[in-house]
Write a structure and sequence with these properties.
Blueprint lengths: L4 E9 L4 H16 L4 E8 L5 E8 L2 H22 E9 L4 H7 L5 E3 L10
Helix pairs in contact: 1-2
Protein backbone atom coordinates (compact mmCIF):
# COMPACT_ATOMS: atom_id res chain seq x y z
CA UNK A 1 0.00 0.00 0.00
CA UNK A 2 1.18 3.56 0.60
CA UNK A 3 2.31 5.94 3.33
CA UNK A 4 0.06 8.60 1.82
CA UNK A 5 -2.49 10.29 4.05
CA UNK A 6 -5.44 11.90 2.34
CA UNK A 7 -8.80 13.36 3.13
CA UNK A 8 -11.98 14.79 1.73
CA UNK A 9 -13.46 17.85 3.38
CA UNK A 10 -17.09 18.77 2.84
CA UNK A 11 -17.82 22.44 3.39
CA UNK A 12 -20.90 24.58 3.71
CA UNK A 13 -20.00 27.84 1.94
CA UNK A 14 -21.59 30.87 3.58
CA UNK A 15 -24.09 32.74 1.42
CA UNK A 16 -22.80 35.99 -0.04
CA UNK A 17 -19.14 35.13 0.37
CA UNK A 18 -18.44 33.17 -2.80
CA UNK A 19 -16.07 35.64 -4.47
CA UNK A 20 -14.03 36.09 -1.29
CA UNK A 21 -14.03 32.30 -0.85
CA UNK A 22 -12.85 31.87 -4.44
CA UNK A 23 -9.99 34.35 -3.90
CA UNK A 24 -8.95 32.56 -0.70
CA UNK A 25 -9.08 29.20 -2.52
CA UNK A 26 -6.68 30.52 -5.17
CA UNK A 27 -4.30 31.73 -2.47
CA UNK A 28 -4.48 28.39 -0.65
CA UNK A 29 -3.92 26.40 -3.86
CA UNK A 30 -0.84 28.51 -4.67
CA UNK A 31 0.54 27.91 -1.16
CA UNK A 32 -0.11 24.16 -1.35
CA UNK A 33 1.66 23.98 -4.72
CA UNK A 34 4.84 25.14 -2.97
CA UNK A 35 4.65 22.23 -0.50
CA UNK A 36 6.61 19.32 -2.01
CA UNK A 37 4.79 16.74 0.14
CA UNK A 38 1.31 17.82 -0.97
CA UNK A 39 0.55 15.52 -3.90
CA UNK A 40 -3.05 16.52 -4.71
CA UNK A 41 -5.07 19.57 -3.73
CA UNK A 42 -8.37 19.63 -5.59
CA UNK A 43 -11.43 21.79 -4.92
CA UNK A 44 -14.90 21.05 -6.33
CA UNK A 45 -18.10 23.02 -5.79
CA UNK A 46 -21.79 22.20 -6.25
CA UNK A 47 -23.88 23.86 -8.96
CA UNK A 48 -25.51 26.17 -6.39
CA UNK A 49 -22.04 27.09 -4.98
CA UNK A 50 -23.09 26.17 -1.43
CA UNK A 51 -21.23 22.86 -0.95
CA UNK A 52 -17.52 22.48 -1.61
CA UNK A 53 -15.45 19.29 -1.45
CA UNK A 54 -11.68 19.48 -1.07
CA UNK A 55 -9.54 16.41 -1.79
CA UNK A 56 -6.00 16.60 -0.40
CA UNK A 57 -3.33 13.89 -0.55
CA UNK A 58 0.02 14.05 1.23
CA UNK A 59 3.15 11.96 0.79
CA UNK A 60 3.25 11.14 4.53
CA UNK A 61 2.56 12.45 8.02
CA UNK A 62 5.44 14.95 7.90
CA UNK A 63 3.86 16.53 4.81
CA UNK A 64 0.53 16.81 6.64
CA UNK A 65 2.26 18.60 9.51
CA UNK A 66 3.98 21.03 7.10
CA UNK A 67 0.64 21.81 5.48
CA UNK A 68 -1.15 22.27 8.79
CA UNK A 69 1.52 24.72 9.99
CA UNK A 70 0.84 26.85 6.90
CA UNK A 71 -2.93 26.44 7.38
CA UNK A 72 -2.85 27.57 11.01
CA UNK A 73 -0.53 30.47 10.33
CA UNK A 74 -2.08 31.82 7.15
CA UNK A 75 -5.58 30.59 6.39
CA UNK A 76 -7.65 29.05 9.18
CA UNK A 77 -9.22 32.25 10.52
CA UNK A 78 -10.20 33.61 7.08
CA UNK A 79 -11.39 30.19 5.91
CA UNK A 80 -13.61 29.73 8.99
CA UNK A 81 -15.29 33.07 8.31
CA UNK A 82 -16.32 31.88 4.83
CA UNK A 83 -17.12 28.18 5.21
CA UNK A 84 -17.94 25.54 7.79
CA UNK A 85 -16.46 22.05 7.65
CA UNK A 86 -19.44 19.68 7.80
CA UNK A 87 -17.51 16.44 7.23
CA UNK A 88 -13.89 15.33 7.19
CA UNK A 89 -13.07 11.80 6.04
CA UNK A 90 -9.41 10.83 6.54
CA UNK A 91 -7.76 7.90 4.78
CA UNK A 92 -4.43 6.16 5.20
CA UNK A 93 -2.58 5.58 8.44
CA UNK A 94 -2.06 8.89 10.24
CA UNK A 95 -0.04 8.68 13.45
CA UNK A 96 -1.06 10.16 16.80
CA UNK A 97 0.61 13.51 16.00
CA UNK A 98 -1.39 13.94 12.81
CA UNK A 99 -4.59 12.83 14.53
CA UNK A 100 -4.03 15.38 17.28
CA UNK A 101 -3.67 18.26 14.80
CA UNK A 102 -6.82 17.16 12.92
CA UNK A 103 -8.96 16.60 16.02
CA UNK A 104 -10.55 20.11 16.04
CA UNK A 105 -12.14 19.33 12.65
CA UNK A 106 -14.01 16.22 13.83
CA UNK A 107 -12.47 13.71 11.42
CA UNK A 108 -13.74 10.21 10.76
CA UNK A 109 -10.86 7.82 10.03
CA UNK A 110 -10.92 5.02 7.47
CA UNK A 111 -8.21 2.35 7.44
CA UNK A 112 -6.74 1.05 4.23
CA UNK A 113 -8.53 -2.13 3.30
CA UNK A 114 -7.11 -3.03 -0.11
CA UNK A 115 -6.11 -1.70 -3.48
CA UNK A 116 -2.99 -0.22 -5.07
CA UNK A 117 -1.34 3.07 -5.96
CA UNK A 118 0.28 3.34 -9.40
CA UNK A 119 2.19 6.51 -8.48
CA UNK A 120 4.35 4.93 -5.73
Amino acid sequence: MTANIYWVLELDVRAGGLETFRALMREMVAAAQREPGTLNYEWNISADCRVCHIYVRYRNGAAVMDHMASWDGNFSRRFSALATITRMSVYGAPDATVKAVLEPYGPVYYEQFGGFDRQN
